[in-house]
TrEMBL record:
Pfam families: TerB (PF05099). InterPro entries: DjlA_N, TerB-like. It comes from the Bacteria. It comes from Paracoccus subflavus. SUPFAM superfamilies: TerB-like (SSF158682). This is TerB family tellurite resistance protein. Residues 26-141 form the Co-chaperone DjlA N-terminal domain.
């Protein structure tokens, strides 16, 4: 499954095709894994948060979310640098879903109740590449912090 997704994500087609909903979910989950791994401390709290976020975002149970996260971990490990990877996702994910991606990234980054500079840098980079302003990203972060 994930090899097929990798080839669709990273094909050299002149006109990128939108991803099937499940493929888009896995690609977004791979971004969540990437932010969680940014500080070299990918732990159970972050994995659990990714599962929770995926379950809520997509209306699936935690077992299905954990399975998608597992596939996303493999995709993330094989994906190119963050810039190229994010641009490919941007071309295949609707603009209205991009702010939700940043919101989810902040949920994962703050799941250990610690603001890490590497995770923040990754979110800042991804936000810009997805066309989400720094202000909107900061608002997403503040919403997560206020909900705690």
């Amino acid at each position: 499954m994930f090899r097929n997704l990798l080839s669709r994500l990273f094909s050299d087609d002149a006109e990128p095709m939108p991803l099937a909903p499940e493929d888009a979910e896995v690609a977004i989950a791979a971004l969540l894994v990437r932010v969680a791994r940014a500080d070299d401390h990918y732990n159970a709290a972050e994995k659990g948060r990714i599962d929770d976020v995926l379950a809520r975002m997509h209306g699936i149970d935690l077992a299905d979310a954990a399975e998608r996260r597992s596939v996303a971990e493999m995709i993330e490990a094989e994906a190119p640098d963050t810039v190229r990877f994010t641009r490919l996702i941007k071309d295949r994910v609707s603009p209205e879903d991009r702010a939700a991606i940043i919101h989810a990234m902040w949920q994962v980054a703050l799941s250990d109740n610690h603001r890490d500079k590497d995770e923040e840098s990754t979110i800042r980079l991804v936000s810009g590449l997805l066309g989400v302003t720094d202000r909107d990203s900061a608002l997403q972060r503040q919403r997560i912090a206020a909900a705690r």
